[in-house]
Amino acid sequence: MQNGVMKAWLESSHLAGANATYVEDLYELYLSDPDLVDEEWRHVFSDLPVVNETAVEQPHSRVRDYFRRLAKETTHLSATVSDPDVDAKQVKVLQLINAYRFRGHQNANLDPLGLWQRERVPDLDPEFHNLTADDFNETFNVGSFAIGQETMKLSELYDALKKTYCGSIGAEYMHITDTEEKRWIQQRLESVVGQGAFTKDEKLTFLDELTAAEGLERYLGAKFPGAKRFSLEGGDAMIPMVKELIRYAGTNGAREVVVGMAHRGRLNMLVNVLGKKPQDLFDEFAGKHDDTWGTGDVKYHQGFSADFATPGGDVHLVLAFNPSHLEIVNPVVVGSVRARQDRLGDSDGSQVLPITIHGDSAVAGQGVVAETFNMSQSRGYRVGGTVRIVVNNQIGFTTSNPNDTRSTQYCTDIAKMVQAPIFHVNADDPEAVAFVTRIALDYRNAFKRDVVIDLVCYRRHGHNEADEPNATQPLMYQKIKKHPTPRKIYADNLTDNDTIELETATSLINEYRDALDRGECVVKEWRPMKLHSVDWEPYLGHDWTAEWPHAIEVSRLKELANRLCQFPESHKLQSRVQKLYNDRQAMANGEKAFDWGMAENLAYASIVDEGKRIRITGQDSGRGTFFHRHAVLHNQGDASTYIPLANIHDKQGPFQVFDSVLSEEAVLAFEYGYATAEPSGLTVWEAQFGDFANGAQVVIDQFISSGEQKWGRMCGLTMLLPHGYEGQGPEHSSARLERYLQLCAEQNMQVVIPSTPAQVYHMIRRQVFRPMRRPLVVMSPKSLLRHPLCTSTLDELASGNFQPAIGEIDELDPKQVKRVVLCSGKVYFDLLEQRRKNEQTDVAIVRIEQLYPFPKEDVEAALADYQHVTDFVWCQEEPQNQGAWYSSQHNFRSALPAGAQLEYAGRPASASPAVGYMSVHLKQQKALIESALTTD
């Protein structure tokens, strides 16, 4: 409430005069933070009448009348303010405390170079609060300031506030609305006035780790001058920070830690944290490589796994493989962590810790960061909080002014969207770094939420070691050239304080260099791996032809189909859903043929029946965008939900389906990460419309299609991409089949267009039970979900198998066939219906259900009866420059009889995937069908 309003409704009260000013200030303090006022006053203010903010006069009179009545009925308030001058000062002292909690970080000593031009914060000056020099010797109540005493001299309080909030740590947490979380942080910071306490051995450890961080970079710079290494120099404190996080996490019960980062500092992380042998790294710099797998990747994209000894036991470490595409690795890491937690039954995230390491420009500039923050507390994606470290070199890539890279004061302001606390820390103060590291992890473990550490540092060289940073950053790099390294600053500090001898600091340098010369592991905590995150052994060495158990007894399949249709009698379904389940019961009873939705759900049931895990996510995955899946049943009476697939029987595998946040990039990256850490089950991401996957193209390009070739990382992720031309316009027709086919090479993934319920049933089961793990991209249907011709029998599900190609199904005389039309997907049914309507017998239609890896033998078998035909047509709905034509026509031709010609029937080339007018769509569709079926 405004000060003028407060004065107006106190004028006639017993609390008028000087007391009115006091209450006004006290109420203002209460509005900023209720904990800053006494409990008695909190009760008074919380009982104020509820005010309608759109009204003007009446609410003011109600509050004024309330205080008048309060003054008449009580005497304790007048006693509380019996000395208004003293009490007014007391309020100002509490306001000063509040100012430091809110804005102390703006005057903190965060920049190692001292270049930050920070505006003066008047709120932090006692004079701003009318506190004079005379008041500094007075004793005041410190309210909730968690220093362990109720009263302090103002001079002592002022000194404590500056040490707590304006030293090497700048804490931002007052944007958090949860009072318990704010109190927790205040207790941790204020009780020790922002200063961590460390033993001599701990300090020596920090120096040793800074020595290693600096020593590796200098060694590489001398041994491989000019080679790109994206050095950590200037941000050396990241190494002791991450190691302290791992040690502390292990002490607190963590058993696995997964780390994601961009390329800067990665080589240092690999050698000095995960224990990669320096000699292996040197061989990579020298151009030596292992020819046993794939195309490989540059050294600063590589990942690594190891075990790390902590006081609480060994912790399994994973540094994720990832490309340079800035922040895209973060949701991959979080997805991998969720899979590990699910496997361990770690529901609160206490056993598996995600750490993501960001760049200052990237964390503010890349939208996937906001997407990942947004996912952090959602049901399908929470992992108990992520510790996020920003290596803030203050200039990002090449820009010379933070105003060019963001519109906020700090690069970490993006974290406030989820009310994450942010701890800014000067990277030249390793003890402050270790202190906030412990606070950050304790916060994450206590509240299961994300927390951010902004490691304010600098970059000693250019973006890479070949760059000349003085060209664009003259003042900064003149300062950097003269600035001592973090190791030297800390070593000098320890020797000046007589913590260590100078000889000790020197010996650490020599010992580390000798260790590098030997080329063996330099991490004392490294241990041989015993804690394997998952067992990939059953999936090694298998190819596409690997046999898998595809047959199921009809009786068992019927039993599963019946269980799919069961739900509590009290669970009232919406009428259309009830009809759908009535139909499914009829299918289970053998009274109706199986449609797409029932066959798909039955595939899932057969998988969990054998103890396998299923995870399906997407923006409408519970229901299905096109109202076909209905795996989650919503009670129309109380909105409760029931999932038949999660209730097949007591010993089944877990079935989870989540409607995702409205994201493609972060969600798909998350599911990729999940699938790389959980090979034995089925992980599915379903696009709302296949077109929308283009928002996640970086995930498809840099992980899904190439991760195995670059890093040897197998992944069995399944992507369901609704695709088909039904006249819905440019953005709701095509899943961009051509993009996936363009990415296909070296047997890297599968691209499938199933056309029957039996095909989707077998395709899904094959992805789980075949002992091979590669991504599966499915052009899934829309109109076929309820097409009268698109059905399958129970026998086709029970005893059939996936058919990469399907030959002619009508009883045509092969000798009468003059033309063979090859096609995939929905267009098959358009061709079939029109041919039957035309009563044609001279055109055969063959479906190619799997476009990659191209099933040449299966296609040849489907064409065996047509060796006399020379007129072949590829028919597709997509424009000529899209779809399968350009990417796959060489495969089609390879399966044709000798001397045969292959022509194209489809829409003309187009810049847009589809037209936006139904009339034009229908005209085009009719034309392409006629073109395919018309023989000369």
UniProtKB/TrEMBL annotation:
<feature type="domain" description="Transketolase-like pyrimidine-binding">
    <location>
        <begin position="594"/>
        <end position="787"/>
    </location>
</feature>
<dbReference type="GO" id="GO:0004591">
    <property type="term" value="F:oxoglutarate dehydrogenase (succinyl-transferring) activity"/>
</dbReference>
<dbReference type="InterPro" id="IPR001017">
    <property type="entry name" value="DH_E1"/>
</dbReference>
<dbReference type="InterPro" id="IPR031717">
    <property type="entry name" value="ODO-1/KGD_C"/>
</dbReference>
<dbReference type="Pfam" id="PF02779">
    <property type="entry name" value="Transket_pyr"/>
</dbReference>
<keyword id="KW-0560">Oxidoreductase</keyword>
<protein>
    <recommendedName>
        <fullName>2-oxoglutarate dehydrogenase E1 component</fullName>
        <ecNumber>1.2.4.2</ecNumber>
    </recommendedName>
</protein>
<dbReference type="InterPro" id="IPR042179">
    <property type="entry name" value="KGD_C_sf"/>
</dbReference>
<dbReference type="InterPro" id="IPR032106">
    <property type="entry name" value="2-oxogl_dehyd_N"/>
</dbReference>
<dbReference type="GO" id="GO:0006099">
    <property type="term" value="P:tricarboxylic acid cycle"/>
</dbReference>
<dbReference type="GO" id="GO:0045252">
    <property type="term" value="C:oxoglutarate dehydrogenase complex"/>
</dbReference>
<dbReference type="Pfam" id="PF16078">
    <property type="entry name" value="2-oxogl_dehyd_N"/>
</dbReference>
<dbReference type="InterPro" id="IPR029061">
    <property type="entry name" value="THDP-binding"/>
</dbReference>
<dbReference type="InterPro" id="IPR005475">
    <property type="entry name" value="Transketolase-like_Pyr-bd"/>
</dbReference>
<dbReference type="Pfam" id="PF00676">
    <property type="entry name" value="E1_dh"/>
</dbReference>
<dbReference type="InterPro" id="IPR011603">
    <property type="entry name" value="2oxoglutarate_DH_E1"/>
</dbReference>
<comment type="function">
    <text>E1 component of the 2-oxoglutarate dehydrogenase (OGDH) complex which catalyzes the decarboxylation of 2-oxoglutarate, the first step in the conversion of 2-oxoglutarate to succinyl-CoA and CO(2).</text>
</comment>
<dbReference type="GO" id="GO:0005829">
    <property type="term" value="C:cytosol"/>
</dbReference>
<keyword id="KW-0786">Thiamine pyrophosphate</keyword>
<dbReference type="Pfam" id="PF16870">
    <property type="entry name" value="OxoGdeHyase_C"/>
</dbReference>
<dbReference type="GO" id="GO:0030976">
    <property type="term" value="F:thiamine pyrophosphate binding"/>
</dbReference>
<comment type="similarity">
    <text>Belongs to the alpha-ketoglutarate dehydrogenase family.</text>
</comment>
